[in-house]
Amino acid sequence: MLITFKCRACPDVIMLENLANYLVGIVGKRLGHRGVITHDELGPAITKLEAAIAVDKQERAEHEGHFHEGEEGHEPHEIPPGLAQRAYPFLDMLRAAQKGNADIVWGL
């Protein structure tokens, strides 16, 4: 299922429900049928999401240090997209909403 986040300060952001649930959870909300991140909640939400992205980048950097592509006995594998790649459209929306003093809503 697709979730559409709407905000009057920027274009809509559409994502799969599992990613939306994960990102909304990071910022301290629950993905219900309808929801809102108010402009008062945006500062802490941005801080939480930026912190989660930083942790993910650090963990990925550590994993890349143990990457054994092409070594004998190790199967080649593709590294999936990181949180930063998946979260930046939502993070950009949070920032735009904060700048525009707007709320973010879904399920309307």
Describe this protein with a few key phrases:
108 residues; alpha+beta; four-stranded antiparallel β-sheet; 3 helices; 4 strands; 46% helix; 18% strand; elongated
SS content category: alpha+beta
The rough form would be described as elongated
Number of domains: 1
End-to-end Cα distance = 15 Å
Tell me the fraction of residues in β-strands, as a range. Answer: 15-25%
Q: What gyration radius follows from the Cα positions, in whole Å?
A: 17 Å
Percent in helix: 40-55%
Largest sheet entry: 4 strands, antiparallel
Total number of beta strands = 4
Describe the protein.
It contains 3 helices and 4 strands, in the order ββαβααβ. It has a 4-stranded antiparallel β-sheet. The chain has one domain (2-66, 80-106). The chain has helices spanning 17-26, 42-64, 83-99; strands spanning 2-7, 10-16, 35-37, 104-106. The chain has 108 residues and is of the alpha+beta class.
